[in-house]
Structures are given as structure tokens and as C-alpha cells.
Amino acid sequence: MVILGRQGSGKGTQSLRLAAQYGCVHLSTGDVLRAAVEEGTELGRQAAGIMNAGGLVGDDVMIPLVAERVAKPDIMSGGVLLDGFPRTADQANGLEAMLADLGQELTIAINLDVPVEEVTERMMARGREDDTEEAIARRLSLYEEQTAPLLDWFAERGLLATVDGLGEEDQVFSRLTEAIDGRMA
Ligand code: AMP
């Protein structure tokens, strides 16, 4: 499964609950990168500046990173919820190629839909280190430019389900499971 949505849409929170519900691995590329920054690895050193500026880490780094992780036995047997990947057309094509290599298929791509005004307010309120006003604006504009077009890419493949992300957390979670269960049935 893939979950797409603007930063601040509640994707992270809902993804944790969904992974628990469906017994799959929650793979957040943002979490992987933040851990790498924390540990001071080579990947972390490369990513830190880009992340603080609200930019995107290169596809040449992100695609192999995800390809390596999804080939591991836990994901091969239990599945994965991808959160924060793909974010560009190249990453989407990379995902298609890596799944084909592994003989795996996507079940659903969820668009967790929350309007720009609402996510901006939420991000200002959560006060993460990379949540400066400039970085938020940059991330949202990159989302519209690079990631929003992927909604069509998934729709063309019959995989897209748009879920309203406004409202109570439990209510949104119910909408998500309904969309997924409908797809799995
Ligand atoms: P997130 O937690 O998904 O909002 O990601 C935090 C930051 O990590 C983003 O603003 C990007 O700088 C970087 N990042 C996460 N996932 C990706 C990706 N798939 N491609 C490029 N950069 C990413």
C-alpha cells in the first residue's frame, strides 16, 4: 500500500495505526532519513541540509534505499505501507520496477486529502525542527509540483482511492480502513 498526502495531513499518525491493523511494515522514508541524520551516517549527512530547507533528497538516493528495504523478508511476507514514497515521477517508476522485480503488486494508493490552509496551520502548531515557515511553504509547493501529479499516475493504474482527511482521527481511520477493505475484498 502507498499513502500520499500533503505533509501535515495526518499521514504519519494514520499510517502507524494502519500498519498495526493490517500487520504490515510501516516504511516512512522521512523517519528513515531523520534516523540517519540523528545517527550521523553518510546518508544523514547528505540529507540533513536538504531536509531543513524543505527540499527533496535525490531520487538516486531514495530509490535504492527503498528497493533494498522492501526486498527484506518481513515486507516480502507481510507487506508494507509506504509513507512518503514515492514523491516524484521517477520514484513512482522506480517503485513499479522494484515491485515487478520482486513479483509483488500494489493493492491501493490512498490520497489522504487535507486542504493546504489546514495542513499549514497544523504544521505551524507541531513545531518540528524542519517546520520553519519557509520550509513548510517549500515542501507544500514541491508537493503540488512533484507529488500531486502522481495521483493521476496511480489513478491511471486503477489504484487510487481518495479519503477525506478532515475530522477526528478515529473518523479518518474508519474511512481509511473502509477504503482498504473495499479494495482487498
Ligand atoms: P516526511 O516525514 O515524509 O515529511 O519527510 C521529511 C523530509 O524528508 C522531506 O521534507 C524530504 O526532505 C525528505 N524525504 C522524505 N521522503 C522523501 C522522498 N521519498 N524523496 C525525497 N525526499 C524525501
> Any idea what the CATH superfamily is called?
P-loop containing nucleotide triphosphate hydrolases
Average predicted local confidence, pLDDT = 96
Number of domains: 1
CATH architecture: 3-Layer(aba) Sandwich
Assign the structural class, choosing from mainly alpha, mainly beta, alpha/beta, alpha+beta, or little secondary structure: alpha/beta
Order of helices and strands: EHEHHHHEHEHHHEH
Give the CA-based shape: globular
Q: What is the topology, as strand order, of the major beta sheet?
A: 2-3-1-4-5
Bound molecules: adenosine monophosphate
State the major sheet.
Answer: 5 strands, parallel
Helical coverage, percent range: 55-70%
Gyration radius, rounded: 16 Å
CATH level 1 name: Alpha Beta
Helix segment tally:
10
What fold name goes in the CATH topology slot?
A: Rossmann fold
Structure description:
The chain is of the alpha/beta class and 185 residues long. The protein has a single domain (2-184), classed as Rossmann fold (3-Layer(aba) Sandwich). Helices cover 63% and strands 11% of the residues. The chain has helices at 11-22, 29-39, 42-52, 59-70, 73-78, 89-102, 116-126, 133-147, 149-156, 169-184, and strands spanning 2-4, 25-28, 80-83, 109-113, 160-164. It has a five-stranded parallel β-sheet. α2 (29-39) packs across α3, α4 packs parallel to α6 and α7 (116-126) packs antiparallel against α8. It starts with a strand and ends with a helix. The structure holds adenosine monophosphate (AMP).
